[in-house]
Amino acid sequence: MSLKEIQKEIVENKKQHNFNVKDMNEEFCHLYGEVGEAYDAWFKGLDTFPEELADVAIFLLGIAELNDIDLETEIRKKVEINKGRIYKKNEKGHLVHI
Fold first, then answer.
1. Spatial distance between the Cα atoms of 11 and 65, rounded to a whole number of angstroms
2. Would you say the C-alpha torsion 32, 37, 42, 47 has a positive or negative sign?
3. Which residues pair with 43 in a beta bridge?
4. Measuring CA to CA, which residue among 79, 78, 71, 77 is closest to residue 6?
5. Would you state the pLDDT for residue 79?
6. Burial class (CB in 10 A: 0-12, 13-18, 19+), 61
7. Are 24 and 66 contacting, i.e. CB atoms less than 8 angstroms apart?
8. pLDDT tens per residue, range 10-56
9. In percent, how much of the chain has pLDDT > 70?
10. If you write DSSP's letter for every residue of 1-41 in order, what string do you get?
11. How crowded is residue 42: how many other Cβ atoms within 10 Å of its Cβ?
């Protein structure tokens, strides 16, 4: 199953359960919450960390589908862009692309 097919399945499941499929503010809030839960699980060393990462991906893929974005294609494009970037440390010691 392709990522695009998974995107469609995620949104179909949301529709079948009468979850939000229109309010992007709400979707981003849920995504943000799931990222927080994933971080918490990782920080605490919980066995639920993989499941929480899956929740992050589900909300992200759902947002992509609701906005007619093929996220797999966009990820592939971005990976290629990142391969060609040059990074250096800034004055705070953080790597930034130049």
1. 7
2. negative
3. none
4. 71
5. 98
6. buried
7. yes
8. 999 999 999 999 999 999 999 999 999 999 999 999 999 999 999 99
9. 100
10. --HHHHHHHHHHHHHHTT--SS-HHHHHHHHHHHHHHHHHH
11. 14
| Residue labelled with tokens 């979707």 | 27
What is the identity of the amino acid at 89?
Answer: K
CA dihedral over 26, 69, 35, 51, signed as positive or negative:
positive
- The single residue listed with the structure tokens 């097919």 is 5
Please check whether residue 52 is in contact with residue 37, taking contact to mean a CB–CB distance below 8 angstroms: yes
Reading the block at residue 36, the tokens are 């927080």
Counting every residue written for the chain, the total comes to 98
Placement of tokens 């797999």 in the chain = 72
